[in-house]
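Structure catalogue
Derive tokens from sequence
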Amino acid sequence: LDNLRVDALGSTVFAPPVITSMNPTSGPTTGGTRVVITGSGFQDGTSVLFGGVPAAQITVLSAESLECWTPAHEIGSFQVVVRNPDGQAATAPFAFIKQKRIIRFP
């Protein structure tokens, strides 16, 4: 497995997660945006936090890709934390923005 390594004591350990991209990198404060995170070292049981708030419906697609749905959150820029069950984590920025309203005239 690509996400395993051997430490100085000869124990097999997982490599830490790495985030190489995230799509999209912003979403409305109401939440509900599907986010795909790519990188390496993702494990089953990985948690994802957006500014400290847990994501919904996290699915680890492979060691290189996961998807989740944003929670509702206050406006602003925050860190997304991807944390494996062994405690190792990676971060990337995400912005919660005010949802645009579309006004249609008859």
In short: The mean pLDDT is 90. The two ends are 59 Å apart (CA to CA). The chain is about 0% helix and 55% strand.
